[in-house]
Design goal:
6-stranded parallel sheet; about 45% helix; globular; disordered N terminus; Rossmann fold
Amino acid sequence: MSQKEDESSPQATVEKPDPVKVTLADDDREDQQLFQEALDKTGTNAQLTVVNNGQELVNSLKDPEQEKPDIIFLDINMPLKDGKQALKEIKKDEELKEIPTVVLSTSGSATDVKETFESGASAYVKKPSSFGSLILILKKVFFFHWAGKLLKPIWDRFFISEKNI
């Protein structure tokens, strides 16, 4: 096949879209690994950055040398600065507040859900008990992200768990 024919083939003109830049803030190494594996299984072209606590997250977001993520997944219970504190700081910052921020926690407490909604989180995901459910939940969150539904969250779709996927 000539070079000209190769360049005109449909495969030659298809460009792979830029990966979705995902930041996960979670101090649990096993949860970090499970998240990475589930993210890979969603089929999403994603580039994952992991930070271990809320302070590290805020520092990386405010670092002008670091590229801003397209979406943040944020655990609540972390050392140094917990997820709720980090969320409030992110949503008060003019340069960061528009980044969709999804709380990802073992807690299903109504108080935690309400507080994070009021603080500006885009969604609240209760960590599922099965790997398959985590994959489905991530697919749902990315569907919401691509559909723009995380930009102005509504209460009826805010809480996501195994029971409502």
